[in-house]
Design goal:
- By secondary structure, the protein is of the alpha+beta class.
- It has two domains: about 1-40; about 40-75.
- The protein is built from one helix and three strands, in the order E-E-E-H.
- The longest helix has 24 residues, at about 40-65.
- The mean pLDDT is about 95.
């Protein structure tokens, strides 16, 4: 299992660290939730995760079928 650690930074911002790689990302609350909206919000990341999961699964199928999906784009609102 992958460990992701989240630290609240204050000012409605958090920093997440991906355990295996050490890569960090920050989140910010959206403007309508009193944040600055300067970074991905937690709900933006949920939509991003679902969309990239769908694209990845399509990529897995495409590899098995020898289809070229390079350049596939997914838009989420």
């Amino acid at each position: 299992m992958v460990n992701i650690s989240i630290e609240y930074q204050g000012g409605l911002r958090c920093e997440a660290t991906h355990g295996p790689s050490g890569v960090k990302l920050q989140t910010d609350a959206p403007v309508d939730s009193h944040g600055k909206g300067a970074l991905f919000s937690p709900t933006d990341l949920v939509a991003t995760a679902l969309s990239s999961c769908i694209a990845t699964v399509l990529g897995l199928v495409a590899e098995r079928k020898a289809w070229d999906l390079k350049g596939l784009r997914v838009e989420v609102t």
